[in-house]
Specification:
With 322 residues, this protein is α+β, with helices and mostly antiparallel strands. Helix content is 37%, strand content 16%. The strands form four sheets. Strands 6-5-4-7-8 form a five-stranded mixed beta sheet, with helices on both faces. A hairpin with a 5-residue loop joins strand 2 (52-55) and strand 3 (61-62). The radius of gyration is 22 Å and the shape is elongated. It comes from Granulicella tundricola (strain ATCC BAA-1859 / DSM 23138 / MP5ACTX9). InterPro entries: IS1016-like_transposase, Tnp_ISXO2-like, Transposase_Zn_ribbon.
Length: 322
């Protein structure tokens, strides 16, 4: 199936409900045999008037939305797939307000929709970066607002907590210099145990790892070829630098500050996943990803990634303004 290459093509292409159903169905069941979401059987009948299947084994009905990020959504797939196309391909992201205006839905619905799409963008393959004779850059970044930019109520809440970084969220990331892939996660604290556990989670033992001089990286030499730069005196020393991962931080912060403006810490991980997805889907080897292939990559991951509104809003936290 040829997917649309531009936004205007996507709007036109997905305006047909049956095209939307066929697109999702083909991605879920490449063999052309829809599988019952209730019993796992593939013996079913298409109910054309209801746009769903009826399983001949368990007699239950299921739609193409069942078991996906679209499940229980009253919005049509025409809106869902256009929103997915936009989020996958807008370089700095797209806000829920823009999605709402573009699709003619409420901002509340658009906000929930975009977070559900980000669930499909979350990495799940578990593959590690690096390897023999491969360099990986590792760094941490502090995300959030400055005390001087906060309202008095927020400033008082953080009063006496220490330096300006104390009220920020911490994101740790790694980039493979060979394949240009990145991994990034929100971490609770910039402590040695936490930071080194994340390095071991995402980087193969024996890789060459370059970091800054943060004390949390002390001891990496036990399992890696480790070298670092002290940013108090230098940023580059030959091949030893973290410029690659710093580039990712710049892209992440540009999207957060310019597009999303205000992000609650408990949701930050999904925004990080969104930027990681776009960063990792720039190239396939030496071939550049197209907007169509990026969209397809998200669509492939929609199954078993449900996120209810209750789960999305059931947490509380300070708002980090950028």
């Amino acid at each position: 199936m040829d997917y649309p290459k531009t936004l205007i093509e996507a709007v036109r292409y997905f305006s047909d409900e049956q095209v939307c159903i066929d697109s999702v169905s083909e991605m879920r069941w490449p063999d052309g045999k829809p599988t019952c979401c209730w019993c796992g059987k593939q013996n079913n009948t298409w109910l054309a008037t209801q746009k769903r299947w009826k399983c001949k084994a368990c007699r239950k009905q299921f739609s193409v939305k069942r078991g996906t990020i679209f499940e229980d959504s009253p919005l049509g797939l025409d809106k869902w797939l256009v929103a997915m196309w936009m989020l996958a391909n807008c370089r700095n992201g797209v806000s829920s307000y823009e999605i709402a205006r573009s699709l003619g839905i409420t901002q509340k619905s658009a906000w929930h929709m975009t977070h559900r799409i980000r669930e499909a963008m979350a990495p799940e393959d578990g593959s590690k970066l690096g390897g023999a004779d491969t360099a990986v850059e590792v760094d941490e970044s502090y995300i959030g607002g400055k005390l001087k930019n906060m309202h008095n109520k927020q400033r008082r809440a953080f009063a006496g907590s220490g330096g300006d970084n104390k009220n920020k969220s911490i994101v740790m990331g790694a980039v493979d210099r060979e394949n240009k892939k990145v991994r990034a996660e929100v971490i609770p604290a910039a402590q040695r145990e936490t930071m080194q556990a994340l390095v071991q989670k995402h980087v193969k033992f024996g890789s060459t790892v370059y970091t800054d001089s943060h004390v949390g990286y002390t001891g990496l030499k036990l399992k890696y070829e480790h070298d670092f730069v002290n940013h108090m005196t230098e940023y580059v020393r030959g091949q030893v630098h973290t410029n690659g991962i710093e580039n990712f931080w710049a892209l992440l912060k540009r999207g957060l500050a310019g597009t999303y403006v205000s992000v609650e810490p408990e949701h930050l991980g999904r925004y990080v996943n969104e930027q990681v997805f776009r960063f990792n889907h720039r190239w396939v080897g030496k071939v550049r990803h197209t907007d169509a292939t990026r969209f397809k990559a998200v669509l492939k991951e929609i199954v078993n990634r449900q996120l209810t509104y209750a789960d999305l809003t059931g947490r509380s936290g300070q708002t980090a303004k950028f």
